[in-house]
C-alpha cells in the first residue's frame, strides 16, 4: 500500500496547489492514505479550524503540525472535536490535542500516524525519543503500519530518530526546515527515512515568506513582519510503499509537482 505525505503546506499558495493536484496524485499513484503537515497553512503561522476542514475536504486524512500549531488560539478547542489533527506528542500533556491518531486507510488497513518534535534550536519540550517509545508501547500489536512526522530543525537529530525507530515504524519523515533533502532510503529494519520532505508553497521566497521582508530581518536584526510569498509554487511530498502485513516499508520516493 502507498502512503502519501505532503510537506509543510504554507499559506494559501500551498493550499491552492494541494487542491489542484491531490485527487490526481491519489488516483495515479494508488494512494491509500494521505497525511500532510499543516502547521503553516494559515498565512504561514498555525492552522485554524476552518482551514483544517478545508484540507480534510480536499482528501487529506490526517494533519500533522509542529511548533507553529499554537499560533492561532481558535484551534485549541478544536483538538477535542477533531482527532485527525495532531500536534507534536512531546509537548506538555496539559496542552490540548494528541500526537497519535489511528486512521483507517482506503484499503481498510489501520495506520498509526505519530507527530513528534525535535529539541535542538526548538522550544524545549519533553524528550521526543522517549515519547516515541511510550507511543509505540501504547499501540496495539495489530497496528503494523506506522508513520512518523518528526518536526525538527537539525538533520543530526532527525537521522538519529530514524535509527531510533528503525524496525519499529514504517516511516520517519522530517519536516520544519521547508528545504527538501535527497537522502530518502529504506533502513535495514524496514523503516523508510527522509530528513525533510520540504515545503508545499512558494519557492521564490525565504522558506515561504517574501524575500525582501525576510532579508530585511537579517540585514537590520529587527522584528520585520513577514508576508506570504506567491511565486514559484511547488508541491513537495513523499510516497512510501509499505507491506501492510508486516508494516515494513519496501520503497520511498520523493514526489514534486511544479
Ligand atoms: Fe515548524
Primary descriptors:
binds fe (ii) ion, six-stranded mixed sheet, about 260 residues, Purple Acid Phosphatase, chain A, domain 2, alpha/beta, about 25% strand, single chain
What's the pLDDT, averaged over the residues? Answer: 98
Integer tally of domains:
1
Class from helix and strand fractions: alpha/beta
CATH topology: Purple Acid Phosphatase, chain A, domain 2
Measured as a percent range, the helix fraction is 25-40%
Poorly predicted tracts of residues: none
Would you give an account of this structure?
The structure is a single chain. With 258 residues, the protein is α/β, with parallel strands linked by helices. The chain has one domain: 4-Layer Sandwich (Purple Acid Phosphatase, chain A, domain 2). It contains six helices and twelve strands. The strands form two sheets. Strands 1, 2, 3, 10, 11 and 12 form a six-stranded mixed beta sheet that branches. The chain is globular and about 55 Å long. The two termini are 25 Å apart. The mean pLDDT is 98. The structure holds fe (ii) ion.
Amino acid at each position: 500500500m502507498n502512503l502519501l505525505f505532503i510537506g509543510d503546506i504554507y499559506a494559501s499558495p500551498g493550499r491552492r496547489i494541494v487542491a489542484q493536484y491531490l485527487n490526481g496524485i491519489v488516483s495515479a499513484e494508488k494512494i491509500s492514505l494521505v497525511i500532510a503537515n499543516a502547521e503553516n497553512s494559515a498565512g504561514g503561522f498555525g492552522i485554524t479550524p476552518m482551514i483544517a476542514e478545508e484540507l480534510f475536504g480536499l482528501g487529506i486524512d490526517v494533519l500533522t503540525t509542529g511548533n507553529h500549531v499554537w499560533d492561532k488560539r481558535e484551534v485549541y478547542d478544536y483538538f477535542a472535536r477533531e482527532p485527525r489533527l495532531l500536534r507534536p506528542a512531546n509537548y506538555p500533556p496539559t496542552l490540548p490535542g494528541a500526537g497519535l491518531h489511528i486512521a483507517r486507510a482506503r484499503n481498510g488497513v489501520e495506520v498509526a500516524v505519530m507527530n513528534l518534535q525535535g529539541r535542538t534550536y526548538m522550544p524545549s519540550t519533553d524528550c521526543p525519543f522517549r515519547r516515541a517509545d511510550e507511543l509505540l508501547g501504547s499501540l496495539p500489536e495489530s497496528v503494523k503500519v506506522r508513520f512518523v512526522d518528526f518536526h525538527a530543525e537539525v538533520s543530526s537529530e532527525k537521522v538519529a530518530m530514524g535509527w531510533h525507530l528503525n524496525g519499529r515504524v514504517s516511516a520517519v519523515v522530517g519536516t520544519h526546515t521547508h528545504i527538501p533533502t535527497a537522502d530518502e532510503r529504506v533502513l535495514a529494519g524496514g523503516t523508510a527515512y527522509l530528513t525533510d520532505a520540504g515545503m508545499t508553497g512558494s519557492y521564490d521566497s525565504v522558506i515561504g515568506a517574501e524575500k525582501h521582508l525576510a532579508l530585511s530581518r537579517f540585514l537590520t536584526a529587527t522584528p520585520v513582519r513577514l508576508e506570504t510569498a506567491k511565486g514559484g509554487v511547488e508541491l513537495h511530498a513523499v510516497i512510501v510503499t509499505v507491506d501492510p502485513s508486516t508494516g515494513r516499508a519496501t520503497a520511498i520516493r520523493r514526489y514534486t509537482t511544479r
